[in-house]
């Protein structure tokens, strides 16, 4: 089917993605060296950009703190006797997952080139991410194990099997929401579940769709937030209500962001009658909350 | 202007636009969408198809009638039952020589019960005929045909046994090139060589007429060992080639081979080529969360892709959750295709 | 009481400063006598970019809710007849000049002035008044209470609070929030410089360019943007055919929507 005119369009994206694109196109040539050598590097992703974005859009009413996912991850890594090098956004750039999936290959290549150079300079052996999308991008699209010999881990894999102990302040029923990048694409279903099992006092239930059949949060590359994707998210939240949970845990800041946004929107429009009486949290935040009793 | 006025204006505009759209659609039928596919009817069986088929059948019957009525049958002289056995004996057509050979190589299957070896009883040996050569030779032909029929069923099971490293042989099918799979190639060569040797064996009397030293014993040994030798040579040769570094083709290499062979068809892209593995079981379409939400006819991402209707919404509404790949029996990575399409359209390449 | 004086920068005098989060907050008053310090009933106007007339403020909290960048905090002002606490623009440099607070204030006690305009027409007669020791004591007792939670919005966040409390015990390294903030601010500044804005302008949507992504709806502080279904093409989904419509009776010309639009479909036009 030949079209008469070439079809091209502008991609809808939130503001912070535009800033990431701007950031990607600024070339930084000067070299950088960490103060001391580290084995582990921790990549927080663009959580801070998300924080500023949600402040503008009034959607999260100040209670969605994405940066706390990064802070929680660092705290948990320290708790597990790992001293990670923080690969923060002042030195690194966004991993480029969203740009890749939106089809902006130029931007992705620029981001990839920058990050690969910085990773080479950092001298780390293992990179761990709290974001499932960054994890997939580093492991598959950057192919870090093949090119730089850096092992890529999701933070749940790093924390798994280190003899950590957690205790929930009170009894709680939790469910784990599989991010599609971590689950279906990278095949990691067990590490987060193992971590939840470690929490004393938390009962884990499975949602109706779990593991490879898990429902997506709806906006995996920040493309559109439309009625269809909202319906996907609502269906997922409804499954949480059906399972009778107190807490839904995600493994990706994007899942956290979109679910929080949905929960807030429901509460802003109480007439529509959609109501979910539980919290959405990132797994890292939950584990940190359960650290308290142990200390 | 307040909101109500604006909404009213928009409704008016919409009605106008819709009528224009309808007229446009009727004028340019080739731009029809998938949604209209329900309304396009094919030709009815009666009377169109029935009439056409009847006319064609009658033409053919008339032709046969003409031929049989006006051309006499080309029969030769009647056979003479008193004549001696012809030498060399009459042979079937060349393509049936192997079956003839089967009948010839078959021997009577009998069990000898050696009662005479028991002393003091004075009994005779008993010959139990299980199967005569004729029956067995006929059955062998059936067995060969049956084996050919059973190949698709045996193939996967044997394939999984032979190549345990390819555990997902059911999913991905086996390799097509002989070099990728020497065992199966050797079996194939054995079959072809056996058929050829059986054909040669069946004309043993004719051969013996010209070359007396190639007698029946030599030929039967050749029929037994020749195909096995061919198969061994094939296996050794192919296996050596494989160990030299010839690897199974990746999807990209297959794609190159495929595009090299095409000159006049529309060029395909690599992911379209990968999509060709799809046999349209529809699992992906059923599980797609976007389609699930938008309803049966509204937004059908994967179906629209196969209809080449992926210019707009379908491609951009995909949330790339990977659920289709998770359920796909062929492991087709549909989202890679979406990725490629998005990259191309972002760069402004015409679809 | 009347609304805030629109020309307070030229007619009022600088009488004192108060500590803000980053920069000190300028306090303006008609003359030295009309400022009595915290604890009295004469407070004047606090802040330059975010000018809040404390003598008018009734502390209903609308501005605190409306502010997208969280500029406002509460400050206790005992003995004031209008209310005993006031909304103070504690993080004035963060202001993005969206004028949301101006719009929501029920008593018109807030005036936002563009930072670019400050300093051009202000008076040079500065009456720096020494703060009385007695007032300083009162000032020390005032505490800035941050209340980001909204009135109409309740949501279970027990676990999140627990996690945040645990994290607050220890100072953990940041991961680039300063960079993100400054980039957002620069972008906003560029939009502000590039577009005309104010009460005399209104945002207009170019329907040809609009892709219906609803970004502007989320950014608008005044609920003045609606998505209207246009049914442009049968084959596109209902979402694709939606276009933004800006309602002129609530639009304040703050350019936030133009700032948010990914395809530059929103322009600012002068009102007729």
Mean of residue pLDDT values of chain B: 76
Strand content of chain B: under 5%
- Biggest sheet: strand arrangement of chain B: 1-2
What is the helical fraction of chain B, as a range of percent? Answer: 55-70%
Radius of gyration of chain A: 19 Å
Strand content of chain A: 5-15%
**What is the count of distinct domains of chain A?**
2
Structural class of chain B: mainly alpha
Run of helices and strands of chain A:
HEHHEHHEHHEHEHHEHEHEHH
Encode the helix/strand succession of chain B as letters.
HHHEEHHHHHHHHHHHHH
CATH class of the largest domain in chain A: Alpha Beta
CATH topology of the largest domain in chain A: Rossmann fold
Number of strands of chain B: 2
Q: Strand order, biggest sheet of chain A?
A: 2-1-3-4
Give the SSE map.
The complex is a heterotrimer of chains A (295), B (351) and C (272).
Chain A: H1 15-25, E1 40-43, H2 47-57, H3 67-79, E2 85-86, H4 97-102, H5 105-122, E3 126-129, H6 132-141, H7 144-147, E4 151-154, H8 155-159, E5 166-177, H9 181-185, H10 190-198, E6 199-205, H11 227-243, E7 247-250, H12 253-268, E8 279-282, H13 283-289, H14 291-294
Parallel strand pairs in A: 1-2, 1-3, 3-4, 5-6, 5-7, 7-8
Chain B: H1 3-27, H2 45-70, H3 97-105, E1 109-113, E2 126-131, H4 133-162, H5 169-172, H6 182-202, H7 204-210, H8 216-243, H9 251-260, H10 270-275, H11 283-287, H12 289-294, H13 301-306, H14 313-317, H15 323-327, H16 334-346
Antiparallel strand pairs in B: 1-2
Helix pairs in contact in B: 3-4, 3-6, 6-8
Chain C: H1 8-11, E1 13-18, E2 25-29, E3 45-46, E4 50-53, H2 62-66, E5 73-76, E6 85-88, H3 100-104, E7 110-112, H4 133-141, H5 158-168, H6 177-194, E8 201-205, H7 215-219, E9 225-229, E10 242-246, H8 256-260, E11 266-270
Antiparallel strand pairs in C: 1-2, 2-3, 3-4, 4-7, 5-6, 8-11, 9-10
Describe the protein:
- Chain A has 295 residues and is α/β, with parallel strands linked by helices.
- Helix content of chain A is 46%, strand content 14%.
- Chain A has helices at residues 15-25, 47-57, 67-79, 97-102, 105-122, 132-141, 144-147, 155-159, 181-185, 190-198, 227-243, 253-268, 283-289, 291-294; strands at 40-43, 85-86, 126-129, 151-154, 166-177, 199-205, 247-250, 279-282.
- In chain A, strand 7, helix 12 and strand 8 (279-282) form a beta-alpha-beta unit.
- The N and C termini of chain A lie far apart (66 Å).
- Among the domains of chain B are: 101-243, no CATH class; 251-346, no CATH class.
- Chain B has helices at 3-27, 45-70, 97-105, 133-162, 169-172, 182-202, 204-210, 216-243, 251-260, 270-275, 283-287, 289-294, 301-306, 313-317, 323-327, 334-346, and strands spanning 109-113, 126-131.
- Chain B has a two-stranded antiparallel ribbon with strand order 1-2.
- The longest helix of chain B is centred in the middle third of the chain and has 30 residues, at 133-162.
- Residues 30-40 and 167-171 of chain B have low confidence and may be disordered.
- Chain C is α+β, with helices and mostly antiparallel strands.
- Chain C has two domains: 8-141, Alpha-Beta Plaits, CATH 3.30.70; 177-270, Alpha-Beta Plaits.
- Chain C is built from eight helices and eleven strands.
- In chain C, strand 5 (73-76) and strand 6 (85-88) form a beta hairpin.
- Chain C is globular.
- The chains are: A alpha/beta (295), B mainly alpha (351), C alpha+beta (272).
- At the A-C interface, helix 1, helix 2, helix 3, helix 12 and helix 13 of A face helix 5, helix 6, helix 7 and helix 8 of C.
